Amino acid sequence: MGNTLIIVALQRETSLHPPSKVLLRNLAVTDLCVGIISQPLQIAVFLTLLYKSHQLCRYTDDVGRTASTILCGVSMFTTTAVSVDRLLALLLRLRYRQVVTLKRIYGAVIALWAFSIFTASTSHWNYAVWVALVISSTSLCLVTSIFCYSKIFLTLRRYRSQVRDNAQEQVNQTFPLSIMKRYRKTVYSGMCVQLALVSCYLPYLLVSSFEYRENVMRRRQSADDSYRAVG
Question: Over the chain, what HEC string results?
Fold first, then answer.
């Protein structure tokens, strides 16, 4: 319901920069699909396990893992793109609308979907590669977002220090205070969404890392045992 309301609101909102609206709309759509596609499939997996329908469980697990990888991957990449977008708005200032255009944002969104689909496809032919891609891409998104928001808050802190040092005229020439206040609100909103996603994905990232390590060690042990048996 929340994501549906956001999609409707974005259709009527006119104050946002169109490329930013594309990113927010893409985030709302992917999160909505997680709720109506991925999570019901996960429930189906639990039900097939409960009723011991192993063949159907395997099928629903494959479909659910594919859908979750695509949708959750696009969601994570989009929140990272939002943080990069906010950083560019702060650093580029007047050049922001010339650099961040609809064409480039659409190209970035298509690339995010393509990479997520590719990552999901690897789970069907090489599970280790899929886990490695999920861990590396999630880690990259987290590091990029942390860097962007840290850079943003350090820059805003510098502007605030200039205001306190009676340099208001100089600040207004580079970044008007009215725009700064509105910009700060959008940054706080994006950061809250990012923190919520980190709280959800970080445990999964840690568990997947340990699972991947255990699988690698198990395969190495199996290979060593086979080598000793042949020897």
Answer: CHHHHHHHHHHHCCCCCHHHHHHHHHHHHHHHHHHHHHHHHHHHHHHHHHCCCHHHHHHHHHHHHHHHHHHHHHHHHHHHHHHHHHHHHHHHHHHHHHHCCHHHHHHHHHHHHHHHHHHHHHCCCCHHHHHHHHHHHHHHHHHHHHHHHHHHHHHHHHHHHHHHCCCHHHHHHHCCHHHHHHHHHHHHHHHHHHHHHHHHHHHHHHHHHHHHHHHHHHHHHHHHHHHHHHC
| Range 167-186 burial, b when 16+ CB lie within 10 A, else e | eeeebeeebeeeebeebeeb
For 92-129, how does the pLDDT look when each residue is reduced to its tens digit (9 = 90+)? Answer: 877 888 889 999 999 999 999 999 999 999 988 887 78
Tell me the C-alpha distance between 106 and 25, whole Å.
12
CA 123 – CA 134 distance, rounded (Å) = 10
pLDDT at 180: 63
Dihedral (CA of 38, 42, 43, 45) sign: positive
Give the pLDDT of residue 220: 62
Residues of the chain with pLDDT under 70: 13-14, 162-183, 205, 208-209, 211-231
Average pLDDT, the chain: 80
**Distance in angstroms (rounded) separating the CA atoms of residues 96 and 60:** 45
Residue-wise pLDDT tens digits, 149-174: 888 888 877 777 766 655 555 545 55
Dist. CA 53–CA 74, nearest whole Å? 31
